[in-house]
Amino acid sequence: MKIRKMFTQIEEVRSEAGVDAQEPLRKVAVIAVVNNPFAGKPYAEDLSVLTDASVEIGRQMAEAANAAMAPYEVVSYGKGGIAGLNGEQEHVVAMLTTVYGNVMREAIGGGIAWISSFTKRAAPGATIEIPLAHKDALYVRSHYDGMSIMMPDAPLPDELALICVFANRGRLNARVGGIKADEIEGKDGLH
Q1: Mean pLDDT, rounded, for 133-148
Q2: Dihedral, 91, 151, 148, 61 alpha carbons, nearest 10
Q3: 7, 25, 119, 191 — which has fewest CB within 10 A?
Q4: Is residue 190 part of a domain?
Q5: What gap in Å lies between CA 14 and CA 44, rounded to an integer?
Q6: Reported pTM
């Protein structure tokens, strides 16, 4: 599969509710826009060609996202994608399976928690919210967050837009209880 374009979006929050952060919250999204070989074609049961292609595409995306996080370490992640209108939502889901998640984990040196995700079908100019959660413990509430992504010219009807998002910390001023990041047991991906 061919990547038509890849771009990076960086958001850095330095203050919230008038309180300056000791460490800013940096969120990085890398978006890869690829051709969809199933767009406009009859229903296909086997989508493994998409899953197989996601390994190398995902590796390029995750490495770029990790590099853009510098000088910060990744502690939260999320993934998502948009199928163009001639495709199915299932096409983009096929590219965001465990093998894609594993290359995200490899790029940051680990992570055992399930990777939150969101997908949909839409036209160019659509926005999508990618959920974030802590990479080692899903129940760490301070890291429940997200990033809004807008692609002005993608995906075209016969394309898929894949999204990888990393963050260096939880929300600024998080104070709704739950397990704290320094209390993570790191055994089951939840606690």
Answers
A1: 96
A2: 60
A3: 7
A4: no
A5: 47
A6: 0.95
CA 87, distance to chain mean position in Å, is: 20
**Is the alpha carbon torsion for 32, 64, 167, 104 positive or negative?**
positive
Domain ranges, residue 82: 3-183
* Domain assignment present for 40: yes
| 112 and 151 Cβ atoms separated by less than 8 Å | no
**Peptide bond between residue 71 and the one before it cis (omega within 30 degrees of 0):** yes
- Encoded tokens for 176: 């709704």
**CATH code of the domain containing 66:** 3.30.1330.110
Instruction: Specify if 188 maps to a domain.
Output: no
Neighbours of 113 (CB within 10 A): 23
Mean pLDDT rounded to a whole number for the chain: 96
- Quickly list DSSP for 51-115: HHHHHHHHHHHHHHHHHHHTTSPP-EEEEEEEE-TTS-HHHHHHTSSHHHHHHHHHHHT---SPP
Can you give the pLDDT at residue 81? 98
> Which tokens hold the place of 60?
């390029």
For residue 182, which phi and psi values (nearest 5 degrees)?
-80, 5
